[in-house]
């Protein structure tokens, strides 16, 4: 039904995408050719494509159960990390992608987004502007596709996960797509400083092929001015957006709450079932398998 799928970023909120995917993948025979993703959405997308979603949930629950804080201020004067999130993500990638990039051969082409600051914006200045845009979009989502970073000269680039030649390269690409200091260290990719791909667009439709077809877009933020599921035509494509039906209990960088992980997962599963029910309702009325209703709201 859908030729391409987009996974928005959102840190812990991307657990919702796992629950949604589990509910719909068999019902609508979801087997995309291309997946465009960013940040934690890229990690989740890769694990879903290789069938490691349950192991991912188990890992997150286990680690969150033993991690007591999101910030360890006492480590400021030690060699240990102040923010535990980077190590948790890095170790998870190592454990869950057992066969490295080889595991991604034969599944959908996975394209991960990173952001490049403009040439005139060096080091700390790029980090400052990037952080302001990132946290504003995460904390106060208004438009599905933000243009603030693009207007400042930031650019989004996509890299194929399947082009990684070893585990180190795959790990670095996924972490680069999620690079958000101070939660992560400053990173470079191919000799250039990069930031979280979601700074330019947290819903990375720029990685899609432009060929005719249907696109499923999985959000992680709750946009109150849009329905839970809606479709908009973009040229020869139909883009179907699905968002959480309620604000998710888990926070983007909160790695201490295993209960919120399961609540978020269950919301995703319920939302997936609701979408399937809506689609089957259209079939029972003799309308055929339909997309979610079209929306004229400006995105």
Description:
This protein is α/β, with parallel strands linked by helices and 299 residues long. The chain has a single domain (4-284), classed as Cytosolic phospholipase A2 catalytic domain. It is built from eight helices and nine strands. Strands 1, 2, 3, 4, 5, 6, 7, 8 and 9 form a nine-stranded mixed sheet that branches. A hairpin with a 2-residue loop joins strand 5 (187-189) and strand 6 (192-196). Helix 1 packs parallel to helix 2, helix 1 (15-24) runs parallel beside helix 8 and helix 4 crosses helix 7. It is globular, with a radius of gyration of 19 Å.
Topology:
Layout: E1 4-7, H1 15-24, E2 34-38, H2 40-49, H3 53-66, H4 85-96, E3 109-116, H5 123-139, H6 148-152, E4 155-160, H7 167-177, E5 187-189, E6 192-196, E7 213-218, E8 229-234, E9 237-242, H8 258-284
Parallel strand pairs: 1-2, 1-7, 2-3, 7-9
Antiparallel strand pairs: 3-4, 3-6, 5-6, 8-9
Helix pairs in contact: 1-2, 1-8, 3-8, 4-7
In short:
By secondary structure, the chain is an alpha/beta fold. Helices cover 35% and strands 16% of the residues.
Residues in helices, as a percent range: 25-40%
Mean pLDDT: 90
The number of domains: 1
Q: Report the structural category.
A: alpha/beta
Instruction: Report the span from N to C terminus.
Output: 23 Å
Q: What's the overall geometry?
A: globular
Going by CATH, the architecture would be 3-Layer(aba) Sandwich
CATH class: Alpha Beta
Q: Can you tell me the residue ranges where pLDDT is under 50 for at least 5 consecutive residues?
A: 282-289
- Biggest sheet record: 9 strands, mixed
CATH fold topology: Cytosolic phospholipase A2 catalytic domain
Strand content: 15-25%
């Amino acid at each position: 039904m859908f030729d391409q799928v987009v996974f928005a970023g959102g840190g812990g909120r991307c657990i919702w995408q796992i629950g949604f995917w589990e509910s719909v993948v068999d019902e609508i025979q979801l087997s995309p050719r291309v997946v465009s993703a960013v940040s934690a959405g890229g990690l989740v997308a890769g694990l879903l494509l290789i069938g490691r979603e349950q192991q991912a949930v188990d890992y997150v629950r286990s680690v969150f159960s033993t991690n007591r804080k999101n910030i360890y201020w006492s480590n400021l004067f030690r060699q240990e990390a102040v923010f535990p999130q980077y190590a948790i993500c890095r170790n998870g990638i190592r454990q869950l992608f057992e066969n490295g990039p080889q595991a991604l051969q034969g599944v959908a082409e996975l394209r991960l987004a990173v952001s490049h600051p403009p040439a005139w914006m060096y080091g700390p200045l790029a980090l400052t502007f990037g952080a302001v845009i990132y946290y504003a979009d995460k904390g106060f989502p208004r438009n599905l596709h933000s243009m603030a970073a693009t207007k400042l000269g930031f650019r989004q680039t996509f890299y194929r996960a399947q082009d990684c030649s070893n585990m180190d390269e795959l790990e670095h690409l996924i972490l680069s797509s999620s690079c958000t200091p101070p939660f992560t260290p400053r990173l470079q990719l191919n000799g250039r400083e990069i930031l979280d791909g979601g700074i330019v667009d947290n819903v990375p439709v720029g990685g899609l092929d432009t060929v005719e077809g249907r696109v499923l877009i999985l959000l992680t933020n709750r946009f109150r001015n849009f329905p839970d599921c809606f479709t908009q035509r973009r040229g020869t494509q139909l883009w179907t957006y699905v968002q959480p039906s309620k604000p998710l209990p888990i926070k983007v960088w909160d790695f201490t709450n295993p209960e919120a992980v399961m609540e978020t997962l269950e919301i995703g599963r319920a939302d997936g079932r609701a979408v399937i029910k809506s689609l089957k309702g259209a079939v029972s009325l003799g309308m055929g398998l339909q997309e979610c209703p079209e929306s004229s709201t400006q995105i």
